[in-house]
Amino acid sequence: ERGNVEFQKERYEKALKEYDGALDQLLTVSYDKSIIVGKMKWVDVVIFRSKIHLNKSACHYKLRNWRKAIDEATECIVGNVRDEMMFSDAHIKKKVKDAEKKHGACGVTFIEQRLPRPLRAKAWFRLSRCFLNLENAEKAREACAKALEMADDDKDLLAELAKHSAMIASLEKNQKQQ
Q: Which UniProt keywords apply (predicted)?
């Protein structure tokens, strides 16, 4: 909450510190064995952690730190792999191992499916905007497509994505002409 207040006041560095503090508190919840977190509450922790990473991404975006904004938005979508592996139930770990034996190891545990669709859409849109600023049209287009997939009936987001898609097309056209 304090991070959001700092963000609203356009104090992005301070907001980042507040968000880091919130992540530290979530780590305590994650690692402290005396705190028992049920399956449903663990999903809430994962979603909250993802929101914090997306907020950090917004700060870096405002500061024009495109790579850091990408890292945080990616963290929102894929989560902290180490935490996911440590705190998955034994039966889930077995399913992952069995799937890896059958299909090969993927190396990354995606938490995206647990996140609400609007949060996923925002994260993919942020990635697309950052890639556009880095002039990586291909990755911007891919992330924009994922955002569109998640946007559902959010008319405001769909309108923003349409404008953004036009900007990607313009970048692609300029890059082809060079």
A: TPR repeat
